[in-house]
Amino acid sequence: MKVTTTISETREQIREWKKEGLTIGLVPTMGYLHEGHASLIEKCRQENDRVVVSVFVNPTQFGPNEDLEDYPRDFGRDSALCESIGADLIFHPEPEEMYDHACAFVNIHTLSENLCGKTRPIHFKGVCTVVAKLFNIVQPDNAYFGQKDAQQLAIIKKMVKDLNFDIRIVGCPIVREADGLAKSSRNTYLNEEERKAALCLHRAVLAGQEAISAGCESAQVLRAMEQVIEAEPLAKIDYISIVDALTMQPVEKVDRDVLTAMAVYIGKTRLIDNFSYEVGI
Fold first, then answer.
1. Domains of the chain by range and CATH?
2. Which one of 34, 37, 92, 123 is the catalytic residue?
């Protein structure tokens, strides 16, 4: 497995693989990899001749007073996991390599206005910019993203369509702990008491799924989920919302494919979770 830290070095390797007619898959990450990331890399390994994993804590998607400096990092651990799964290259640049006095950014409207975009207004501008840059550098045939970040996945699919990237975007299922908590690098912030409290997110997902299956309208589904979260003293709701799966706009009735998503603070740690519902499934 090769590790590159510069754009030029990465492009040189990509050119060699392209000359050989090899297909390339990309798994963009911010590092501190867990089983969720591993599932993306494994899927990428199955579908491509060469696997590229980017490990880059992207500063442009963090707002003021967010956890950029505290975000967990362990490149040695990340490298070992990637090699064990069969990644061929890790692109691990410094911020200066990716943003050398940058003035150009990629933004997206409408899809970024609700859910996480409402309370993190610069977040998806940073996400779209870094992903577009990675696409230009790596030129993958396929790119893999987790469905835990469902709004991000929808936004990236829309960006790829609107900007005519010739890349197939693959969404992969949420990977959970045995007790239901969605895998996240930020789970490491939780102490023992908070870790137990965080299970309210999964309980809320189950309550929401049950309410939708029973034919409840959006307000009833949301209230069922809110009651679960509100019963946990350490939890504070950022948002819980039901939106159109394509537009990310709120819906009053579950009469189309929808995404039910939430962000909840457990102590100072902000966690997200979601589930999708497809009409007729």
1. 2-172 (3.40.50.620), 185-274 (3.30.1300.10)
2. 37
